[in-house]
Amino acid sequence: MEDYILRATAANxxxxxxxxxxxNTVEKARQIHxxxxxxxxxxxxxxxxxxxxxxxxxxEKDRLTLQITGDGPLKGILVTSDRFANVKGYAVNPYTExxxxxxxxxxxxxxxxxGSLRVIKDIGLKEPYSGSIELIxxxxxxxxxxxxxxSEQIPSSxxxxxxxxxxxxxxxxGGFIIQLMPGADDxxxxxxxxxxxxxxxxxxxxxxxxxxxxxxxxxxxxxxxEILDRVPVAYKCDCSRARVxxxxxxxxxxxxxxxxxxxxxxxxxxxFCNKVYNFDESELKKLLVEACSR
Length: 294
Ligand SMILES: [Zn+2]
What we know:
Elements: E1 4-10, E2 15-21, H1 23-33, H2 37-55, E3 63-70, E4 76-82, E5 86-91, H3 108-112, E6 115-122, E7 129-134, H4 141-151, E8 156-164, E9 170-180, H5 186-198, H6 202-207, H7 212-220, E10 226-232, E11 234-235, H8 241-249, H9 253-262, E12 266-269, E13 276-279, H10 281-292
Parallel strand pairs: 5-11
Antiparallel strand pairs: 1-2, 1-10, 2-9, 3-4, 3-6, 4-5, 6-7, 8-9, 12-13
Helix pairs in contact: 1-2, 9-10
This protein binds zinc ion.
Residues 237, 239, 270, 272-273, 275 line the site of zinc ion.
């Protein structure tokens, strides 16, 4: 089944809701980065959140980046997304291994550790919008919930889940974000809060074969749920030789000359898809000419 996000509303527009199935996307990330189970779970939760937050962007050129920096063995995670839910990302230490938690779940919070979550939205302004919070638990869903409350003043409920199979492949991945719009009445808030306490864990829903429709039904089925849109999700890297050339040129005259003198070549690997770009001396010299003409 293809990965997708459903965009929905409920309670006459007082609630906006998104649910995602992202199993193939997270599996692709696992194959690219050869992530350990706990790293798959952490990166997968981040990719799923970024896909959903991406489709909230307004313009086609807008870009969203989620970056966690932590003192746990994973060291950090960076993911990006766009309005079409094209996502990509990596964990700094994808081979992190940690014992399971006492409840048998992967210890994502332990792998992430203490640190911060930064959300960067490049929406075509001179300076990108950027909001940052201290991590609450490192479990990622709680941290994004807190980010929305603290940085954007949007009361939200976030659920993110990744189930890793015995052969280490991704069995299921998905999640939801439910948000209250300004002016939601107290009765509705109370009803939603109660409902969120009674629904199964997202991982249990995914493991029972829930699709995005069924996840939204479980939460908002009795609150006037209305599905608006269905957006495909994919892991896609948009790196290219031209972009890598620009990155080399932007290093500047001094640094480029140094690379040419000392190494006579350059090999750059894309963090997101592991594609390798090679430049020989004559190519680097051409880039140096461009750097000098800037
Ligand atoms: Zn790439």
